[in-house]
Design a protein that fits this description.
13-stranded antiparallel beta sheet; 1 helix; 13 strands; globular
Amino acid sequence: MTLRIILFLALLLNNLSAEFYYSGKINIPYNFNLNTYKNTELPIRFIDLNLNYSFSNIDFKSNTAFEYSWDSDPHEKINFREYYLSYYPDFGEINIGKQIISWGFADGNNPTDNINPYDLNYMFESGTNRKIGIHSISSTIYYYNLKINFIASYDKFENNLNKQFPFEMPSKSNSEHIEYGLDCQYSMNQAELSISYFNGNDRFHNENIQAIGANLLYLYNEFSFRFENAFFIANNNEKFLQGIIQIEYPEIFNFNIGSQLFGTYDFNAEKIYGIGSPLFI
């Protein structure tokens, strides 16, 4: 229903003065196991297509992937990863539709970035390519050096499991529910500080869980330091902490070099929760 409404609004604006632009790429990867050199039979995205339609201070944005499976029953699939409307008032922006939203400063292994579930078939991809879009409303407010992002969403929030994992994964959560969060980011001369709160459900056990995050980005000469910490509280009062330190070094011979140190501290958690950095799963 959401997709139909958005497409209807886009067609309604078609007769008015607007701008249409698109981008994309074609890539046909072949993934194989190093020990056997046989295909992993995991799905691939061989076409990524971004369509954008702008009218005044309203944008329609979409991200579509064409996927192919190498398994015994090969098939193609069109995956509408994102489609949403963006409105830009004086104070910031408002987005509604199926979105992929990122929080925090660290690359990839961020324990405070818990809004979108993950497609575990694409865990060797980078950034948002590993995430699954969710139907949500988000707003961003800018006030001097302060940036406030609020997100409220209603969806199933399922991690897409990888059947090639050599160990048993917990069952997926199937019920639709509401999740919400708030992220406040403050910018200084050589640093950025953010504090976040997220209230949602675990991706495997369908139990309520809250995450309180504190992040810091600090720039020193050509070095950058990123500190990420998230404290989790489950609905049965289980608690655990995840943290990451990321250091990026000055460029050497056109190479960007970085390193991460990550870890978890278990206070009294009785199981592995499917929330936080995907590496901890």
